[in-house]
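TASK: fixed-backbone design
INPUT:
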C-alpha cells in the first residue's frame, strides 16, 4: 500500500520514525509531508537513520478559498469552548492559552472562565455542526489525488486551529482512508478538540482511550490501543560508552553517583523561573542528608528551551555540569546515545513536567519532582501530569518542598527505597506487555485499515443547509472586509510610494538646480578669463 504521513513539522518525525521504517521494510511506499516544513528542520535527521526509502513530499497547501477564515474562526472558538467544562476549572493555564486564538466575532467568550457541563456540551455541539457545514477544500483534494495514498496518517490534528482537519475532510470526500496517530501523552488534554473523526485513532494506552471517548467523543470502534511507539527505541538499547567515559564527556566526577535534572519545554518551564528553581534545588541538594550532599548533578536542558543555559555560570557549585549547553534533540544516533547514557548511568532523574520522566521510568530509574509554586499552572494544573502520580498508578516521587525532596533522595539512594516503575511502564507505555513493542502493532493497525472500505463523505444533511448558508454569508463578509483592508493597505502603500517619489523628485530637482548654477558660474568665470586674455593681447 501507499501511506502518506502528514505531520505538523519535521520535529514530529522522532515520534514516528520507527513506524516509517517498519512500513518501508514491509514493502509499502511511504511518503511524508509537513504543514510547517521550516519549523524544527533538524528533525529531518531522523530520516537519515531509517533503513528504507521514505519520500518527502512538497508542503501541504493551505486552502485558498473564502472558507479559510471561517474555518479557522470556528476551530479557534471550539478549542476555547472545550476548556469551559468544569473538568478544566483548575487548569487556567490551558484555558488562557486558548483564549488568545479566539476570533473577533467570538472574543466575548473569553470573559467566561467556566460554565456548566450541559452548557459547554451544547456550545461545542453547535460549533462542531458549524465545522461540518464548512465544505472540503478543492485544493487539498487535488493534492491528495496527485499523491494517491491508500492511507492518510495525520498528527497531531488537535493543535489550535489545526489545518489538518481540512485534509481529513478532503480525504473523506475522495474516498481515502484516514488515521490519527496521537504523538504525545498530553495532546488529548492540553491541545484543541478533535473536530473531525478519522477512520482510525491510534493511542498509547487505555488512559488516552478514555480521554478520546470522554473529551473528544470518538466512536469506540475506531480506537486502537497500540502502545507508545516513540519509546520503543529505549527498551533494547545498551550504553554506547563506559560510565567513566560518559562522566568525563559531560564534566562530572566518576567517583560519585549523579542525578539528572531534565528541563521542560518553554511553555511548561519559562527560562528565568527554571534557572532560579534549579539554583535553589542545587543548594538544597548540597545541604541534603547523608550522601545526598555529595551527589554529582547533571543538568540536561530541553532541546527547545536551552538558550538561557548557555550563559548560566554554575562554577560556584562543585561537581555540577550542564550538558549539552546548547541543547540536543535526540533524533540521530549520536544524540540518542548521549541521551540514553545520561538516563542509564544516573542514580535518579528530577523534572518538572516532561516526557523524560517517562523515559527514565522505562530504564527503571527513580524519578522525582517538586511541586513548586513557580509551575503551578503548567504542572499540577495540567491533566496529563496526574498520570505520573502514585495515586493514579504513576511512578514518580513528588514532594511539596525541597527539604522533603532531599529526604526522598536520601531514602532512595542510601536506603534503597525507590519504587519500581515497571508497573507504570506496563500500563502507560506498553499496555500489551513489556515484551510487546508498539511499532509493529501500529503498523498492523494501518495495514488492516487499508483493507477496510473507505468512508466517503455523504451529502450535507438538510438540517445543516441553513447553517452552511449563514457561514457562506459570513465568509463573504469576511472576504469583503479583508478586501477593504487590502485596499486600505494598497492605498497606504501608494501614498508612501508617492511621498517617496515626490521627495526624490524634489531632491533631484534641487541637485539639478545646484548643478546648473555651478555650471553657469564656471561659464561666467571662463568668459571673464577669455575677455581678460583678449585685452592683454
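OUTPUT:
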Amino acid at each position: 500500500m501507499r501511506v502518506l504521513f502528514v505531520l505538523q513539522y519535521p520535529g514530529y518525525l522522532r515520534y514516528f520514525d520507527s513506524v516509517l521504517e517498519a512500513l518501508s521494510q514491509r514493502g509499502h511506499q511511504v511518503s511524508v509531508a509537513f504543514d510547517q516544513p521550516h519549523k524544527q528542520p533538524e528533525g529531518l535527521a531522523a530520516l537519515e537513520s531509517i533503513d528504507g526509502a521514505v519520500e518527502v513530499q512538497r508542503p501541504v497547501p493551505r486552502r485558498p478559498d473564502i472558507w479559510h477564515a471561517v474555518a479557522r474562526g470556528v476551530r479557534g472558538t471550539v478549542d476555547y469552548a472545550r476548556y469551559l467544562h468544569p473538568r478544566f476549572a483548575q487548569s487556567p493555564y490551558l484555558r488562557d492559552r486558548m483564549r488568545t486564538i479566539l476570533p473577533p466575532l467570538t472574543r466575548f467568550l473569553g470573559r467566561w472562565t467556566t460554565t456548566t457541563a450541559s452548557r459547554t456540551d451544547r456550545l461545542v455541539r453547535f460549533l462542531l455542526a458549524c465545522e461540518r457545514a464548512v465544505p472540503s477544500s478543492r485544493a487539498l483534494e487535488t493534492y491528495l489525488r496527485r499523491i494517491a495514498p491508500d492511507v492518510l496518517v495525520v498528527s497531531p490534528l488537535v493543535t489550535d486551529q489545526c489545518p489538518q482537519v481540512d485534509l481529513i475532510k478532503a480525504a473523506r470526500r475522495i474516498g481515502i482512508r484516514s488515521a490519527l496517530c496521537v504523538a504525545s501523552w498530553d495532546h488529548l488534554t492540553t491541545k484543541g478538540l478533535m473536530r473531525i473523526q478519522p477512520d482510525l485513532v491510534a493511542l498509547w494506552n487505555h488512559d488516552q482511550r478514555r480521554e478520546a471517548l470522554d473529551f473528544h467523543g470518538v466512536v469506540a470502534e475506531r480506537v486502537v490501543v497500540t502502545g507508545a511507539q516513540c519509546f520503543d527505541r529505549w527498551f533494547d538499547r545498551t550504553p554506547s560508552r563506559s560510565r567513566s567515559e560518559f562522566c568525563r564527556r559531560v564534566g562530572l566526577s566518576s567517583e560519585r553517583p549523579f542525578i539528572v535534572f531534565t528541563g521542560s519545554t518553554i511553555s511548561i518551564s519559562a527560562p528565568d523561573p527554571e534557572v532560579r528553581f534549579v539554583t535553589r534545588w542545587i543548594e538544597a541538594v548540597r545541604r541534603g542528608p547523608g550522601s545526598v550532599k555529595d551527589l554529582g548533578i547533571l543538568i540536561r536542558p530541553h532541546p527547545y528551551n536551552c538558550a538561557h543555559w548557555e550563559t548560566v555560570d554554575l562554577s560556584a557549585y562543585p561537581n555540577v555540569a550542564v550538558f549539552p549547553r546548547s541543547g540536543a534533540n535526540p533524533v540521530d544516533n549520536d544524540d540518542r546515545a548521549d541521551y540514553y547514557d545520561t538516563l542509564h548511568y544516573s542514580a535518579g532523574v528530577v523534572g518538572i513536567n516532561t516526557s523524560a520522566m517517562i523515559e527514565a521510568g522505562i530504564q527503571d530509574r527513580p524519578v522525582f519532582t517538586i511541586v513548586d509554586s513557580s509551575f503551578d499552572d503548567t504542572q499540577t494544573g495540567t491533566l496529563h501530569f496526574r498520570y505520573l502520580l502514585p495515586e493514579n498508578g504513576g511512578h514518580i516521587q513528588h514532594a511539596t518542598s525541597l527539604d522533603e525532596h532531599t529526604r526522598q533522595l536520601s531514602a532512595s539512594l542510601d536506603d534503597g527505597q525507590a519504587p519500581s516503575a515497571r508497573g507504570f511502564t506496563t500500563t502507560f507505555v506498553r499496555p500489551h506487555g513489556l515484551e510487546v513493542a508498539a511499532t509493529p502493532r501500529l503498523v498492523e493497525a494501518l495495514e488492516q485499515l487499508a483493507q477496510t472500505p473507505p468512508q466517503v463523505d455523504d451529502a450535507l444533511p438538510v438540517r445543516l443547509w441553513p447553517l452552511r448558508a449563514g457561514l457562506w454569508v459570513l465568509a463573504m463578509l469576511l472576504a469583503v472586509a479583508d478586501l477593504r483592508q487590502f485596499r486600505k493597505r494598497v492605498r497606504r502603500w501608494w501614498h508612501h510610494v508617492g511621498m517617496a517619489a515626490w521627495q526624490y523628485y524634489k531632491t533631484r530637482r534641487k541637485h539639478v538646480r545646484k548643478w546648473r548654477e555651478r555650471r553657469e558660474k564656471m561659464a561666467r568665470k571662463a568668459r571673464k578669463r577669455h575677455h581678460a586674455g583678449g585685452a592683454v593681447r
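COMMENT: The mean pLDDT is 91.
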